[in-house]
């Protein structure tokens, strides 16, 4: 037995047990090696006129033997001599493929695409095998040699028999252990699944002998009681697709083919709403094919959902979901990215330089944003359907970045317009603003219907201003993070940003000077009344005052607003969280309509010294305003009793 040519046995153990995180990766590595061997022979046929090999003669064959517990990967490639077996397999981390790639760099491309580069992929076989036998016959040679090792200390090389050029790698699988079931690799389904998962787009056909069943012809003399008979047979089947759809010219692929690929590979029964194809050349060459689904998966907003695009290098899958390729707010996008320029780590499961990923991700983000903007402008119905499914994620993208991403995302947002009674963008809102409007107004609550009836919404609309009605729990937080929004400035114009104001917030600045003066006089005149009402509400409000929003007898008698950074809607949402959000309270203000008949009743009770009546009316007005806002009552029974008392 010959020893492995390494400094110590520890390095071999590292190769086998520490590089790869997933044992099933062994089949990907062996098929990639086989593809490289076939590629080398094909390249030889292109550069040597004496070598007559057609591309249709080149293939990879995978088989298994349950009784012998073996999995075999065979190829019709260039094969290896005895010296090459010793050099390539007996020296750990020596890559014959890397040498070939370096010596023939100009050959990489459409005809030849060498995958290997580290010289360790072969040793992944020892993760699942207790012995590996490599039988190889070099092209043009009459001799075949067999390399055998248990992956512990060394190997043997002996003369062998093989009918033609190429290599067979036969793995004798380990016995099943408590947590490891190696029998998975001894089934047609198990091997086909791994081939499709990792090596579906290897450029050469990967074939298997597959079990089939067919019905036998019905005999001519069969009677009425004839029952169909079936026979089992085997047939060579090509498992992989070979040509990746993302590398084909867009003009050569139909929309139906893209849709079928999406539904098949990403397990969706509905067609995508948009398909995005990218081909980039330069310092980093890559192909990308991305899809915007028509509906959100059930777990999109759960903590278990994992975003990312499938990452391929030279048609071999490296990562099923590469999270770095997508920002969180575009987590709904599905697709693949393929580049032979990526610098992979030794296991080819992750990347060495994330700067490459960041460069690709930045370009893809712009493509996705551009596609969404085009859909928004040219197919509004489709975009509104998309936004209903995925708009929440775009809003979270602004909120979780503390507003840093609003430049990329804010113009994609849609909100319901109380005036237009349809979904509009912030740009459309600003374009319709009357002269003199200095803010973008919005209201947040449970439903459009409820918000439209709120006194604070009606008050703003009576001034001639539109109000955006926001019904998702993230809306208020999104707007708080944005603080303002500016319509993109035309050439020669100055960029201006309008603040975003909740109509239930403190000072909207909409009152006229006369209204402001009247409110100040009423507040001064009724200072004692408002003080008594505040005391009666016992800390539930920070202030009671005259409303400038409710300015007529037809308006509501009172409304609740909030001062400070925490709005009423934010308080309501935070109070529903399981981590103590009820501790966060807004600074509530009870605004009283000085023109409403109830205010006269309050004044009369205060002047008559009827403190109980003032307290009762204060409680009623406060709780009534809470109900209108959709806020919970702290004591519904007390509220009902107060109403009953007044009805006596």
UniProtKB/TrEMBL annotation:
GO terms for cellular component: cytoplasm. The keyword Nucleotide-binding applies. Keywords: ATP-binding, Chaperone, Cytoplasm, Nucleotide-binding, Stress response. ATP binds at residues 29, 33, 75, 80, 88, 95-96, 117-122, 167, 348. Residues 22-177 form the Histidine kinase/HSP90-like ATPase domain. One of its GO terms (molecular function) is ATP hydrolysis activity. It comes from the Bacteria. SMART domains: HATPase_c. Its main location: cytoplasm. It is found in: Cytoplasm. It holds the Pfam family HATPase_c_3. SUPFAM superfamilies: ATPase domain of HSP90 chaperone/DNA topoisomerase II/histidine kinase, HSP90 C-terminal domain, Ribosomal protein S5 domain 2-like. Residues 573-648 are annotated as: C. CDD domains: HATPase_Hsp90-like. InterPro entries: HATPase_C_sf (IPR036890), HATPase_dom (IPR003594), Heat_shock_protein_90_CS (IPR019805), HSP90_C (IPR037196), Hsp90_fam (IPR001404), Hsp90_N (IPR020575), Ribosomal_Su5_D2-typ_SF (IPR020568). The keyword Glycosyltransferase does not apply. HAMAP family: HSP90. Homodimer. NCBIfam families: PRK05218.1 (NF003555). Molecular chaperone. Has ATPase activity. This is Chaperone protein HtpG. It comes from Slackia piriformis YIT 12062.
């Amino acid at each position: 037995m010959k020893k492995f040519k390494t400094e110590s046995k520890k390095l071999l153990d590292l190769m086998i047990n520490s590089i790869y995180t997933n044992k099933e990766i062994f089949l990907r590595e062996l098929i990639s090696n086989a593809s490289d061997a076939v590629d080398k022979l094909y390249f030889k046929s292109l550069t040597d006129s004496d070598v007559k090999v057609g591309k249709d003669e080149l293939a990879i064959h995978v088989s298994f033997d349950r009784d012998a517990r073996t999995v075999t990967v065979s190829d019709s490639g260039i094969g290896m001599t005895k010296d090459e077996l010793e050099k390539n397999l007996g020296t750990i981390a020596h890559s014959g493929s890397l040498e070939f790639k370096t010596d023939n760099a100009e050959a990489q491309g459409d005809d030849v695409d060498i995958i290997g580069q580290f010289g360790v992929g072969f040793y992944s076989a020892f993760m699942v095998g207790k012995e590996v036998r490599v039988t190889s016959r070099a092209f043009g040679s009459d001799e075949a040699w067999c390399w055998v090792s248990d992956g512990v200390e060394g190997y043997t090389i002996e003369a062998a028999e093989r009918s033609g050029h190429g290599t067979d790698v036969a793995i004798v699988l380990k016995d099943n252990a408590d947590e490891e079931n190696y029998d998975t690799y001894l089934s047609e389904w198990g091997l086909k699944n791994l081939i499709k998962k990792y090596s579906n787009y290897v450029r050469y056909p990967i074939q298997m002998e597959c079990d089939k069943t067919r019905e036998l012809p019905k005999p001519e003399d069969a009677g009425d009681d004839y029952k169909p008979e079936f026979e089992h047979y085997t047939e060579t089947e090509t498992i992989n697709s070979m040509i990746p759809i993302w590398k084909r010219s867009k003009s050569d692929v139909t929309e139906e083919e893209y849709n079928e690929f999406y539904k098949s590979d990403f397990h969706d029964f509905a067609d995508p709403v948009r398909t995005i194809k990218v081909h980039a050349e330069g310092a980093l060459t890559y192909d990308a094919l991305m899809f915007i689904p028509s509906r959100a998966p059930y777990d999109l907003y759960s903590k278990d959902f994992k975003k990312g695009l499938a990452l391929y290098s030279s048609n071999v899958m490296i990562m099923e979901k590469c999270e770095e390729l997508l920002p969180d707010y575009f987590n709904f996008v599905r697709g693949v990215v393929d580049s032979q320029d990526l610098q992979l780590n030794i296991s080819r499961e992750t990347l060495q330089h994330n700067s490459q990923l960041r460069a690709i991700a930045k370009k893809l983000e712009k493509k996705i944003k551009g596609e969404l903007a085009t859909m928004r402008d040219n197919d509004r119905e489709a975009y509104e359907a998309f936004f209903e499914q995925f708009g929440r994620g775009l809003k979270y993208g602004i909120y979780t970045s503390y507003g840093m991403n609003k430049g990329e995302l804010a113009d994609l947002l849609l909100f319901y317009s109380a005036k237009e009674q349809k979904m509009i963008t912030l740009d459309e809102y600003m374009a319709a603003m009357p002269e003199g409007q200095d803010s973008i107004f919005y209201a947040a609550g449970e439903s459009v219907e409820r918000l439209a009836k709120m006194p604070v919404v009606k008050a703003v609309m009576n001034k001639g201003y539109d109000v955006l009605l926001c019904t998702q729990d993230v809306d208020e937080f999104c707007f708080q993070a944005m603080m303002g929004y500016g319509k993109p400035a035309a050439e020669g114009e100055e960029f201006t940003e309008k603040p975003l104001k909740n109509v239930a917030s403190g000072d909207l600045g909409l009152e006229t000077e006369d209204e402001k003066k009247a409110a100040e006089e009423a507040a001064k005149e009724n200072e004692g009344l408002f003080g008594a009402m505040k005391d009666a509400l016992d800390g539930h409000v920070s202030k009671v005052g005259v409303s400038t929003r409710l300015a007529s007898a037809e308006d509501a008698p009172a409304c609740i607003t909030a001062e400070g950074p925490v709005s009423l809607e934010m308080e309501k949402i935070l109070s529903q969280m399981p981590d103590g959000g009820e501790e966060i309270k807004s600074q509530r203000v009870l605004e009283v309509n000085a023109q409403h008949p109830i205010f006269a009743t309050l004044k009369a009770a205060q002047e008559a010294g009827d403190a109980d009546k003032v307290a009762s009316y204060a409680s009623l007005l406060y709780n009534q305003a809470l109900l209108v806002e959709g806020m919970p009552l702290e004591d519904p029974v007390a509220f009902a009793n107060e109403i009953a008392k007044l009805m006596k």
